[in-house]
Specification:
about 160 residues, mainly alpha, extended, transmembrane, membrane, IQCK, IQ domain-containing protein K-like, transmembrane helix
Length: about 160
């Protein structure tokens, strides 16, 4: 039940952000949609009903101030530097990825491949060894991975062509 409720909130957030991007006459305004959504979700969290009465502004929250001390914001927000089309692509890619990662059947596949790569000691899957250029192939990390794979009989380092 919570999963469907969270999906509704995510879909609602998606449409709110798209409407903000397309219906503003001036894209450069003092309104920050992410700050607004963070503030409203923090204040309206059903697990913490005491937050509803004194609704806090985003910069009055302790965790926000701690994060801003660790990583201060840049002078210009990324939304000022992006076009609308680029921002829409970023939002769509993030939400599509989120929806795909939350599907249980795909989570099984992802955990399967994570365990396979962990057992083999491979951090990033390499699909085609012949496409690696010489400079990339000579990094210390790849030398160690190539030696591991060569010891298992997967590749032959001497006969691996470089482009």
């Amino acid at each position: 039940m919570t999963y469907t409720l969270f999906m509704v909130n995510t879909v609602t957030m998606y449409f709110i952000l798209i409407n903000i991007l397309f219906h503003l006459k001036k894209p450069r305004s003092s309104f920050n949609g992410i700050d607004y959504l963070s503030e409203s979700f923090y204040n309206a969290n059903s697990k913490y009903p005491h937050r509803k009465n004194p609704c806090l502004h985003i910069f009055e929250m302790d965790w926000v101030n701690l994060e801003l001390k660790k990583r201060p914001r840049p002078f210009y927000p990324l939304s000022y530097l992006m076009t609308r089309e680029t921002a829409v692509r970023y939002i769509q890619a993030y939400l599509r990825g989120f929806w795909v990662r939350k599907r249980p059947e795909l989570n099984e596949i992802r955990t399967f491949w994570k365990t396979i790569h962990f057992k083999r000691g491979i951090s990033v899957p390499v699909y085609n060894e012949t496409l690696l250029d010489k400079k990339h192939d000579e990094t210390p990390r790849n030398k160690v991975n190539n030696k591991k794979r060569a010891s298992k009989g997967n590749i032959n380092i001497k006969n691996t062509p470089t482009v």
